[in-house]
Amino acid sequence: MVLSFPREDLSHYLDFMNHLAYQCHVILNESETLNSLKDEKFDITVIDGFNPCSFLVAEKLGLPFVAVFPGTFANGPQVGIPSPLSYVPVFYSNLADHMDFWGRLKNCLMSLISAIVQNQVQTKI
């Protein structure tokens, strides 16, 4: 069935998101490193857009940023990258850009679940 989403896959996704939250917590609380970066007086930051924590580091440093996206995760829409659910598959959905009705429905549901999970993880930071 097209709408199946194995519980094991969801568990791996949640583990991954929790790891990102932990990593972000550690980075943002590393005041010595952050202060050292501030002291360098950089004009701009170039960040890896895959990890949502990169945006927070740039914000904490008070610097504008350029984000490089080696592959969009689920945070593209959050930074203004158009991602129409009708043909842009959600990360980890195993869908392609050509979807039938059920594929689009699965993509919409996974987008909703992803947004809920990201919100829960980001509130831990």
Automatic annotation (TrEMBL):
It is found in: Membrane. InterPro entries: UDP-glycosyltransferase, UDP_glucos_trans. One of its GO terms (molecular function) is glucuronosyltransferase activity. It catalyses: glucuronate acceptor + UDP-alpha-D-glucuronate = acceptor beta-D-glucuronoside + UDP + H(+). PANTHER family: EG:EG0003.4 PROTEIN-RELATED, UDP-GLUCURONOSYLTRANSFERASE 3A2. SUPFAM superfamilies: UDP-Glycosyltransferase/glycogen phosphorylase. GO terms for cellular component: UDP-N-acetylglucosamine transferase complex. Its EC number is 2.4.1.17. The lineage of its organism: Eukaryota, Metazoa, Chordata, Craniata, Vertebrata. Transmembrane segments: none annotated. Belongs to the UDP-glycosyltransferase family. This is glucuronosyltransferase.
